[in-house]
Amino acid sequence: MILEWMYVAFFLTVLFNEGKCLSSNLDDLQKEYGEWRLQKSPGYPTSIGIYKYNDQVERFTYSGFKKEYERYQSLHNRLKSITYNQLSPKEKTDYDIFNDTLSTLIRGYRWKDYNDLNPINFLEGPQIDPSYLPSVTPFDTVGDYENYVRRLELFPIQMEEMIKLFDKAVEKGHTYHNVSVDKVPDQIDEMLSNGNDTNFPYYKPFQEKLTKLTTIVESKKSDMRGRAKSAIRKIIQKYKDLKTYFETVYFNHVRSGYGVSSWDNGGEFYKECLRWHLSLDHTPEKVHHMGLQEVERISASMKKIMMKLNHKGSVKEFFDKIKEDRSNYLNTGEEIIQWYKNAIEHDIKPKLPNLFKDLPNLPIDVQPNPIDGIDGQYLAGPPDGSRPGVFQVNVFHPNKSVKIDFMALLLHETIPGHHLQISVASTVKIPSYRKQMSGYLYTVPFEAPFYTAYVEGWALYAESLGEELNLYKTDNDLMGRYGSEIFRACRLVVDTGLHYMNWTRQRAIDYMLNYTAYSEKSITTEVDRYLTWPGQACAYKIGELKIRELRTRAENALGSTFDIRDFHSIVLKDGALPLNILEKNVDQWINEAKQKPSKTTTRCTSAGSTKYSNLRLLIIIFTFLLCKSNY
Question: How does residue 22 score in pLDDT terms, banded at 50, 70 and 90?
Fold first, then answer.
């Protein structure tokens, strides 16, 4: 009898731990990866309230590439040891996304000698907004200040590492075109225009903030101020060295061709950049063709409206006429803010239940953008709703903000766009690394994916939902929506044209001027952005088209049983993910929805269900042994 009970104890230990270990191993790997990513880029965790790396800066060494690659390989090998079929459906999705993340990084290592060697451009680098770091760094204790001083002392080393990477780019023949970097010296001059160490943004925490702290003695304050000034003087000198390097070395070696196809094997590099941004295996030719089709389709819709309004000129002339009519503007920034607030509360929110269910209802606020720049942006609030998500609107120039653009922008950034997207994801338990995606765009494709095609594709899709909800109240409003959409469609044509079909910069500018209402100055800046970040601009429209394709597939497969609210729930429930995994999840949902009326029993294969199956097995074994002992 004792022997039989020992058998029971043995099976209990083995069988229960089998299902448990599968999910815990996956969790542990994801946590390890997420923590390592934070440690690798210590400035990012500071920005999200994680302060344990505040005395460190990111390294930019060529030898570091191989170390990264080896770390990703190790994680991926351990991931593959997990038995996929014994995971729960949610764990399978987590596995798929993690596997895609690591596979993307491993595949991207092949291209480490391309854009990765160029860490500064007119969009990225240490010359962009130096006031940001002190604005997100805590300054409450001696330790906070000591960490910050140490970080300042490391910045000159970091910039020297960047210069060495540029040297490697020159050696390999993989430099930017001039348009990506020609603004950098002026950006540095503007940053240094205030002059000395105490006027530099990095020194601001040592002024009034430190003076008011009573928990730090005066001698310590004086010591830290002195060390900070010394560090900042070295930083300023290194910025000057950086400017000199660009003007006397790098500018002599910028690539002559506009697109990356002018590099050796540049066409294949661009394909990999596209795959990184799209999370789909679309060829440049396919993306280009899709762009041409979308431009033609949207242009036809715009022409119908213009004919209805008796406008006989071009699209640009139509929008010029709109801009000349003062009735299409609001008078003040306060009126613009109130327009957006009213639209959210009275126009959008009452209609959302027609397309969505189980809405998280996290608060959203509209505030003026403190910086004059883009038209609007969304800043997420915490998952518990203790602070609202914020839609920041540019109200610096009310006389240039045309009302017909408002609704599409609002839908994109708030609900049902980014605010709803992020709010739904915050209600689901997902690994922390997927909540803390960070990185650079110049490092693509050897970079952890952000899944921009999903994130921005959803927001562009959200703009189209405004038509279904009758939120575009006038023909002019619809023209504003189509103007926003065709801009994204043009990107597919122009980006692939520049980097794969040897288009010139001027040809790209002319193409966008022909189909959009933007100024030549704005278009030129856009095109220079596309030249700097190959493939990135294609993500928005491709993501929207994929979501639209999956919706049509579900509608056709399910017929009268299709529920748009269920479809949107499936699309949103896992947060940012690759489009190919989204497609897999939607297809699985379609198959399950088809079988739903039959109430058929499916085999349990998840880690959780495995544990319950094992429990039933143990009961059988226990019953058998008990019966045996009674004979």
Answer: low
**DSSP for residue 367:** E
pLDDT band at 623 (very low <50, low <70, confident <90, very high): very low
| Residues 354-371: tens digit of each pLDDT | 999 989 988 999 999 877
Closest CA to 116 of 43, 39, 176: 176
> To the nearest 10°, the Cα dihedral for 607, 610, 615, 616?
160
Tokens in use for 53? Answer: 């790396």
Q: Report d(CA 130, CA 239) in Å as an integer.
A: 12
Structure tokens at 400: 């240039």
β-bridge partners, 368: 393
Helix (H) / strand (E) element for 366: namely: strand 364-368
Instruction: Say if residue 482's pLDDT is above 50.
Output: yes
> What whole-number distance in Å separates Cα of residue 446 and Cα of residue 398?
42
Phi, psi for residue 399 in degrees, rounded to 5: -75, -5
Mean pLDDT score of the chain: 90
pLDDT at 373: 67
Q: How far is CA 236 from CA 104, 185, 210, 231, 513, in A?
A: 37, 13, 22, 9, 40
Task: Name the helix (H) or strand (E) containing 74.
Answer: helix 63-80
Q: Report cis status (omega within 30 of 0) of the bond before 449.
A: no
The C-alpha atoms of residue 301 and residue 485 are separated, in whole angstroms, by: 11
pLDDT at 556: 98
| Token duo for residue 310 | 């008796």
Contact between 259 and 530 (Cβ < 8 Å) = no
What pLDDT sits at residue 385? 76
Which residue type sits at 263? W
To which H or E segment does residue 496 belong? helix 475-500
> What are the pLDDT digits (tens) for 307-358?
999 999 888 899 999 999 999 999 999 999 999 999 999 999 999 999 999 8
CA dihedral 510, 511, 512, 513 (to 10 degrees): 40
Question: Is residue 55 within 8 Å of residue 158, measured between CB atoms?
Answer: no
Alpha helical stretches, state H, 41-62 = 43-47
- 3-state DSSP percent of the chain in helix, strand and coil, to 5: 70, 5, 30
Residue 459 Cα to chain centre, angstroms: 12
Burial readout 387-401 (b: 16 or more C-beta within 10 A, e: otherwise): ebbbbbbbbeeeeeb
The model's pLDDT over 166-212, given as tens digits with 9 standing for 90+, comes to: 999 999 999 999 999 999 999 999 999 877 889 999 999 999 999 99
Share of the chain above pLDDT 90, in %: 79
The SS3 assignment for 186 reads helix
CB atoms within 10 A of CB 464: 15
Two tokens, residue 401:
């903000």
- Give the tokens for residue 481: 């929506």
Indicate the pTM of the whole model.
0.88
3-state class (DSSP) for residue 119: coil
Q: Could you tell me which residues are beta bridge partners of residue 365?
A: 390
Amino acid at 47: S
Q: Going edge to edge, which strands form the sheet with 389-393? A: 364-368, 389-393, 376-379
Sole residue written with tokens 């143990």: 618
